[in-house]
Amino acid sequence: MAITGRNEALEGPIRLGMVGGGKDAFIGGVHRIAARIDGKFNLIAGALSSTPERALESGLALGLAEDRIYSSYKEMAIREARLKNGIEAVAIVTPNHVHMDAAREFLKRGIHVICDKPLTHTLTDAKKLVKSAEASDALFVLTHNYTGYPMIRQAREMIASGALGKIRLVQVEYAQDWLAEAADPDNKQAAWRTDPTKSGAGGSTGDIGTHAFNLASFVSGLEVETLCADLQAFVPGRQVDDNAHVMLRYEGGARGMLWCSQVAVGNENGLRLRIYGEKGGLEWAQEDPNYLWYTPFGEAKRLLTRGGAGTGAAAARVSRIPAGHPEGYLEGFATIYSEAAEAILAKRAGKDVPSEVVFPTVQDGLKGVQFIDACVRSSARDSAWVKFA
Amino acid sequence: MAITGRNEALEGPIRLGMVGGGKDAFIGGVHRIAARIDGKFNLIAGALSSTPERALESGLALGLAEDRIYSSYKEMAIREARLKNGIEAVAIVTPNHVHMDAAREFLKRGIHVICDKPLTHTLTDAKKLVKSAEASDALFVLTHNYTGYPMIRQAREMIASGALGKIRLVQVEYAQDWLAEAADPDNKQAAWRTDPTKSGAGGSTGDIGTHAFNLASFVSGLEVETLCADLQAFVPGRQVDDNAHVMLRYEGGARGMLWCSQVAVGNENGLRLRIYGEKGGLEWAQEDPNYLWYTPFGEAKRLLTRGGAGTGAAAARVSRIPAGHPEGYLEGFATIYSEAAEAILAKRAGKDVPSEVVFPTVQDGLKGVQFIDACVRSSARDSAWVKFA
Amino acid sequence: MAITGRNEALEGPIRLGMVGGGKDAFIGGVHRIAARIDGKFNLIAGALSSTPERALESGLALGLAEDRIYSSYKEMAIREARLKNGIEAVAIVTPNHVHMDAAREFLKRGIHVICDKPLTHTLTDAKKLVKSAEASDALFVLTHNYTGYPMIRQAREMIASGALGKIRLVQVEYAQDWLAEAADPDNKQAAWRTDPTKSGAGGSTGDIGTHAFNLASFVSGLEVETLCADLQAFVPGRQVDDNAHVMLRYEGGARGMLWCSQVAVGNENGLRLRIYGEKGGLEWAQEDPNYLWYTPFGEAKRLLTRGGAGTGAAAARVSRIPAGHPEGYLEGFATIYSEAAEAILAKRAGKDVPSEVVFPTVQDGLKGVQFIDACVRSSARDSAWVKFA
Amino acid sequence: MAITGRNEALEGPIRLGMVGGGKDAFIGGVHRIAARIDGKFNLIAGALSSTPERALESGLALGLAEDRIYSSYKEMAIREARLKNGIEAVAIVTPNHVHMDAAREFLKRGIHVICDKPLTHTLTDAKKLVKSAEASDALFVLTHNYTGYPMIRQAREMIASGALGKIRLVQVEYAQDWLAEAADPDNKQAAWRTDPTKSGAGGSTGDIGTHAFNLASFVSGLEVETLCADLQAFVPGRQVDDNAHVMLRYEGGARGMLWCSQVAVGNENGLRLRIYGEKGGLEWAQEDPNYLWYTPFGEAKRLLTRGGAGTGAAAARVSRIPAGHPEGYLEGFATIYSEAAEAILAKRAGKDVPSEVVFPTVQDGLKGVQFIDACVRSSARDSAWVKFA
């Protein structure tokens, strides 16, 4: 470990709006902290709720000027696009079923979109949104935030460099227990996440399975060809899966397993990824994100640490402080915002987005929705192997 | 923790023979240590190899009298059965394809059998052996040694007592890496374990998958109804699976996943079991066997330790030393021998085997071979759900 | 774990200046992120370096207006105090020997001071600074950042509530290895930290020992009465200690040990605290800060997690995201800034600082310098027990 | 990991007697298992208690012939020395104050002694016993059993080979909590261990501190020159220390800390050793004994495992099973017996003890008693630095 500084170069910060994320929301607050950490955004407008009073109250609490507080994302998109100092980017942090409509309003006006996952609540919507994003000059950034962890970047870099040889196995899991019982009707987070009209056909598959699925591909560099799923709703009356067992076959012959669960008692946010190749293995767990276990075949296991010996440029790029000073979930999330900012600033300057800037895109979002869809279809067909539709 | 003693009551030790386990064998030596730890057996005869010189050399090295060293298990069974002080029990530690024939020679002469797993190399043999065992007065003990770990007994007792409520999920895995490359032809262990004529149709499924499968049922108290498997031989030229992904459906609605692999680089002997019920969760890992993680739903996770606070009678029965003094693999294995000894001594005394004495039986062995068979059949049918045959 | 939101209430942010922290500095950047995370400060002025060009370059990179960039902290204090929208608070992040003079310039003009630790490089200075702080209406906040970790707050609350009974033992250590070899002369961080004219008489004792010492008292609620130290400079030519062994006697009869080292190879930032009372024990490690191990005597060890079951109000107050989503070093540091902000906003509003707002003060800073001084004196007297001077 | 066998070569087993270790004793049972594991001893005689009925009952329970059961160790020594097939070695597992007298009875008759630690309850006795041992042809083996762990042998070998460079720091601790409250008068283990007339002047220092002290020297290869101690009896009425803080100065300039405690709530048997040199660091914990953490300076930390990659001959010599199959406390203890057996068999054959055979000797025992004595003297002199007397 060396104690060294890291210099900032804060160009004029990016003017940011937000859709959703009003009072009591969970992920909206996370996005706001993430946007602040590296100082590259200023939140100046918001349609934080579709209820006017709630939108106003929430906006004022965040220090927004009253005339930049909206109760309609459409109104916000229209007006902000016309303002001289209108927002350059918008964060969409609503329940899933709102993503597509909201995003399209901004995309078509050239406002960059930073959108929470999963991309949409239906596959049809996802495909429409892909078209809209592709038709727009604006960027579309999906906040698969776990891709922002430095040791995830490290793992990805190692695999891309061949350190593991040809990949054979991808074992990924995401276990929680917060839905182990029927949700309290007052719990808004639980309510919409288990309502298929808002979250989509996937429950745990959509809420957390997509993260696991995305992370496995992000790190391994591999795409799933077919999958075979057994979905279950253990809690009586639940309309979406709260547990999913999935077997995966990747292009090139690698195999995998994905388990996601929201009823695995004793698991808080247990996203864990293990990848094994002909020459080595890697293991990482989200709850201890500064560590990456690396075993070159036939040698002792090594504990790589963020900022520590044996780590490379990809991790260092997105790391803020020295080894032994743990970075967490918010910093990983902030990295998605920082990557977005790098891309937006390049756009602003009329330059290409630098090649080292990496963030999940609308295409990754589509794959996530295809993953949910494939899980649901396979499970309905007695766990037949299915391709992405 | 309390530092307290544990008294021994060594009745006349049981006269033991061994089939297999000659020079350079792995598991034979493990059986011998296991038999010695609690002082309840005396090894006095052996057919340690079918090669006479090797049998003799191996027997002498173990201190056997020359006239109790055999090169044929059949000869040993016949002669020992006639001797006044002949063996009372035999440990069979050969490659799998020999188990059935050897076991039957002893069973039919009333000599108790302690047999390594998997039970046999074919399902046909397994069923025959079940009949032989059932027809015999002698005991049949299968060394699924992991069932001997105190914290496994603890987990089993907790689940049986309802501490976890109705079980929903059984996640079990057994990952190794010692076959990640084509085995050296000089490695006898690797050679027979990857030769289907000796090990059977399952590779990793037979060698380690059966352990995982057995342990999951032993602890959960649940039986698998159907399974769906994707088997793979990653190493070119390998004739049996070296990796298996399996989804499980248990009686009563629980679901599970089983992963076994011998190519997961960085894993030495990674048998890990996690069981989740409506009211709690348990997690255990073989490489750290003195720990059991227990989370009652809505409470903090607890680290139960062998001999420590919060552990019960089932674990204490099979524990030798106080908390904080780790017991290991050999002690767990020894417990199988001690349980066998308890049962044999009861038989010797004309008593019933005490109800608290627990060991894997020939029926468990049959289930293990059925598991291998079902995995192979399901995988051949594109991962269809199959029942045990 | 429950996934729930946490609402922000961003009043007009506090206008902040910074002394030190120019290009290539380490801790200045940390302070800036910490100040941003909760959105309660705006950095608007800086005397980031005493070299004018460097000050200018660093200020511009941070987006400061050119007329708010200074190369003299005195000039900054004078001018900002006169401005209508001048800074309300200043962060002092220079090497230790500058702290006192800089702080006094702001304190005497009623500008709140947030100062890095240790308080000063000499005990004489520390005492002077205490007087200045006491004579000022402005607040003095010392960034013993580790006190901002939620699980440290949890531990403190548990001990204060009597959960551990009377405290017997305080074992604290802070091990690093970055100075295991003679520092590269180009390493500015290493250079001033091993130069007694800049860092003070303590090396590891000052740089990290003070953190350990402070944290032990913060959590235990106990003050050291006497200590006995054995200091060593292992690296040839080093003028300050790079390792310290210290025995502690606390008021009320508790005993402790403190070890700090910058030559313990394999340790990155190993601050670890263990406290044992008559009724229970607690264990915490900075590198895994979201966990707190709690053992009530005679019960199983429990793993308390940030946001998880069994944690209380003190931790929740300073926690941002749900359990299982790790918070890190920067969030803990940000909590010091947030606590400072709460106090400053109360002052601004003419109110008392709320009683739940907790941060290290100038008095804590004095104790830290007394600790260094006592270690040096004891070690010079062959490890005699000494009191604080 | 390779799955390979390990061959036994059981020469005629050594005839063993035991002094102490009757019904309800703790350490006697441990010695018996340890003696059995590798099959090199036969327990054939015992003076298991000084109470005749208890001696008889205990002996019969262990399967001893009635004429080899004694209630006086002296009688046993005299008679066994005369028998043709009398014992060759004796295990002395009584409370400390009996060690010297018992050992001398056997030593003077040429019977090898395997004695529990600490060597004696007084320094005077220890010195006498050294003389007796030196005057005898018989071997004296002290069961500092933790030296038998394979990864301890590994650490020792690495340091001896220079892998860590010159040693700077030795941090050792041994924390328990079983005496956190006044002991139940019925607890025999607690009773004699806190009675200075039986255990000696040291409480925790004698019972566990000696283990820590011995292990630190065994691994580091260094001898303590002076120490400085602060002893405490936290439990009211306790006559011996239940906690000790000790600073150590080793020959050649290394420094160390030793902490032992029997009141650290939440610690079961927390013996932990960390050694840091100029070129690397090692960390080991008794409760997870199959792991050794090794950091070469400037490289990633490596997890060495018993039997795993990167381990050498010294560990392999005393290891029984492959990596990933945990060995525990009993196996480590058994290694002391196996080493003793190797030495005894060499003696029996008129050969030199092979140089690779390593076990703690009477000299190590003397150092342990000197350590206790020095701690007590230093503490009485207000933690002055003292030499061994």
TrEMBL record, chains A, B, C, D:
<feature type="domain" description="Gfo/Idh/MocA-like oxidoreductase N-terminal">
    <location>
        <begin position="14"/>
        <end position="141"/>
    </location>
</feature>
<protein>
    <submittedName>
        <fullName>Oxidoreductase</fullName>
    </submittedName>
</protein>
<dbReference type="Pfam" id="PF01408">
    <property type="entry name" value="GFO_IDH_MocA"/>
</dbReference>
<dbReference type="InterPro" id="IPR000683">
    <property type="entry name" value="Gfo/Idh/MocA-like_OxRdtase_N"/>
</dbReference>
<dbReference type="GO" id="GO:0000166">
    <property type="term" value="F:nucleotide binding"/>
</dbReference>
<dbReference type="Pfam" id="PF22725">
    <property type="entry name" value="GFO_IDH_MocA_C3"/>
</dbReference>
<dbReference type="InterPro" id="IPR051317">
    <property type="entry name" value="Gfo/Idh/MocA_oxidoreduct"/>
</dbReference>
<dbReference type="InterPro" id="IPR055170">
    <property type="entry name" value="GFO_IDH_MocA-like_dom"/>
</dbReference>
<dbReference type="InterPro" id="IPR036291">
    <property type="entry name" value="NAD(P)-bd_dom_sf"/>
</dbReference>
<feature type="domain" description="GFO/IDH/MocA-like oxidoreductase">
    <location>
        <begin position="152"/>
        <end position="283"/>
    </location>
</feature>
